[in-house]
Amino acid sequence: MSSPERTLEAIQRALGPYVKPREEASHVRRILALHLQSFLGESPVPGSLALVDASKPVSPSSSRGLQREYLEALSTNIQTRQEHEACRQRIEHRHDEPFTSRTPKTDPLQEHLAMINLQKKQERLQAVEKHIELLSQKPAASPGFLNPEEMFMDSRPLPDVPRDVVTALALDDAPASTHLKELIDQLQKHVLRAKLQLKKEEQLLEQVKSRSSVAPGTVTNSAKLEALNTSRAELINWIEVELGKAGDGGADDSSGNSHGSEGPPNTTRLDEQLAGVRAKYSQYLEARKLLLQLVSQQTKPVINPLVDDALPPAAQTATPPPPTHLLPPYFEQLLSVAREQKGLITQKSHFNITIAKQLKETCQALDHLAEESQLIPAHPMPGAARRKPAGFGEALSASETLDSFSRVKPWVFAADSAKIATLEAVAEKIEEGQIALEGSMHTIGEIDQLLHTEVKTEVGVGDESVEDIWLAESRPAGKSSATRKPKPKPQAVKDVWDLLDGNLGLLRSENGTP
Questions:
Q1: One-character DSSP codes across 33-77
Q2: pTM (2 decimals)?
Q3: Which parts of this chain are annotated as the region Disordered (predicted)?
Q4: Of 146, 247, 291, 367, which residue is least crowded by CB atoms under 10 Å?
Q5: Long-range contacts made by residues 460-464, C-beta under 8 angstroms, separation at least 24?
């Protein structure tokens, strides 16, 4: 870190406790204003407390309490401001001094020579930096430039070393005391063995030629065309298989990169294989174009050389030219069909890659939701174990194991289980409520039995006016007043004792008896 940045950080660290947001500063100001107002009381302030003359010293000797502390802080502030002003004036006076008085006199020639040396040094450093950048851009600057594994990755494996060569090398490694005669004998044995093997191969070739009934010169154009179509079909099938493998390998590579460090080597290997397939296919296209050009060329008439009349007529008749003019239309049709099949193969590989990526993203989202979900652990599906982290083998075949149904099935089972559990809980609560309601009704009946029959009559009248007790409570006061219970009518007087029932005290008070 440079020195200006360190200085800036030190200044920010020192001013951190004193620098506050605008809202907090305004809040502190309001608190201080209220605090000062509480000390001043109702009397008006003669002047602003912040306007203090810095030239006059403040003596807090006659004050006490908070006022004394404030005056001491004010005197300290005035002293600090005076010191700051004096320091600023000294710095300004130093800047106003002429530059020549502060710097010693130097020779202009020495300054010019020093400047030339610095320029040369700068040019050398720039040249070195430029060449370092150029070297860093070359492939030799990469760490794996001379790595034998990367250099020989696309090369074919070396064939097995023959046993004869191994024995010869072993003999070469033998001590120098081996006799020259033994070496000559071994060389003669090798030569004899090679001759015998050559004779056997020649005999096998003669046998194959004798067995074959078709001579190379007697092959017809239709047979050649059929063989060409067969080779073309085989080549197209091979290209489709290779492109399908490349698409599956790309999906496997994209899924394997999210599992571990085994991804980058597989990615580079698959990319190199795909590049090899493309190179082979481009070579095939070039060869096919060359073949079509050769076929589309016009056939030149064959000029027979002059033959003496003494020769027999069979020798004078020349072989007719092959009818190659019939092949170009078929080649054009085959070329159009090949283009269509190439487009279909490319589209199929694109679809495979897109579907594999979508399945991978969907499965990753489902796995992430399953890890954060509280529903699946609460209602696990029987017989389904939790997914383990994929290893190297699973990463290579991720496109084959991406099964979204197996990831969605636990969610469906957990949702159904939660729904059934909720319904069961609601049914239990309803049953408990019904039992409590029956108990309350039974208790109300017992209370009615303990009371007089008149209360039952009143309750019955209330039931006729309001059918449901809960509806009666939910109705407003205006409506409930219309359905209030009517007062019981006084019974008719039947005899004298009915008049005296409950009124004996009144009779005594009227007669004046104590």
A1: HHHHHHHHTTSPPSS-SS---TTS---GGG--HHHHHHHHHHHHH
A2: 0.25
A3: 246-270, 473-493
A4: 146
A5: 461/485, 461/486
What is the token pair recorded at 363?
A: 């499965």
Give the integer Cα–Cα distance in Å for 323 and 201. Answer: 37
Closest C-alpha among 239, 216, 262 to residue 396: 262
pLDDT digits (tens, 9 = 90+) for 202-230: 888 888 878 766 565 666 777 778 888 88
Place of tokens 């109705």: 475
Q: How far is CA 459 from the centre of its chain?
A: 72
- Domain residues of the chain, as ranges? 3-97, 243-298+323-404, 419-489
Q: Is the Cα dihedral 44, 48, 52, 53 positive or negative?
A: negative
Cα–Cα dist 80/77, whole Å: 5
Cβ pair 54, 82 in contact under 8 A: yes
Residue 374 tokens read as 């509280």
Q: Kindly tell me the sign of the dihedral angle through the C-alpha atoms of 6, 11, 12, 14.
A: positive
Output the pLDDT for position 282: 82
CA atoms within 13 A on the CB side of 417: 14
- What's residue 400's pLDDT? 46
- Cβ atoms of 248 and 392 within 8 Å: the answer is no
Among residues 373, 355, 363, which one has the least CA distance to residue 394? 363
